[in-house]
Description:
By secondary structure, the protein is an alpha+beta fold. It contains nine helices and five strands, in the order αααβαββαααααββ. α1 runs antiparallel to α2 and α6 packs parallel to α9. 24% of the residues are buried.
Amino acid sequence: MTQRQHDESKLERVIRKIKRCLALSKSSNENEAATAMRQAQALMREYRLTELDVRLSDVDEVQSEKSRVNRRPTWDRHLSGIVARVFGCRPLSYRHWCNASDRLVERALFVGVTPAPQIAMYAYETLLSKLTQARREYVAQVRSGKSRSAYSPETAGDHFAIAWVSAVHGKIHELVPRGEEDQAIEQHSNGRDLVAVESQDNSLIEQYLAGQQIGKPRKARPIELDMAAQIAGMLAGQKVKLNPGLATCGATQLQLTGA
């Protein structure tokens, strides 16, 4: 382990300890709460940390294992965008030199408060695999003449994929884990507490990204979509079944089934 890795590991342990102290500071036992707060403040002074630093440690970024040599197509970026909105993340495209493939590649990247980006990436990559397969099959149909299009097979496939994402958009909300606690909050706060949490998370994400260089998104050019490809994409997307599930070890994950 290098000195830098040792320092980062030590800092992570300190932050975890501070978080435990801050949690105990909300105890109904006044003496326990006061002692925990003093310990948290002492640790923050010793390591020159603020409460914002501690909160920002919950923000994480996850990049996709799937990459493209060229820029990610519109339908790919649309998919990551709607998944990110559902799970309260910021979707980005990460372009970098890949040593493994010895070339410049672009990947999807999610930034959010843990575990949101991990869940979003799981949903995105699973849906992307299904969409890629469905698009490939439709392109093959156009190429063989089984499906007609005024566009090239690849372009028709892009139009198919855009419609597929639109059809799946409404279903992705079903992926969000909804336990009894979430329902209780909605019933007793009319959603105000949930909005406050989302606002806080968005604020943390923006502060996390504030010091990073992020390029401006390109303006999407209006395109005239092939009606036949749109209909085929919508029908295929409507057949996709999304079933929420819980993984072991208390980690929330999702199970997707269907075409």
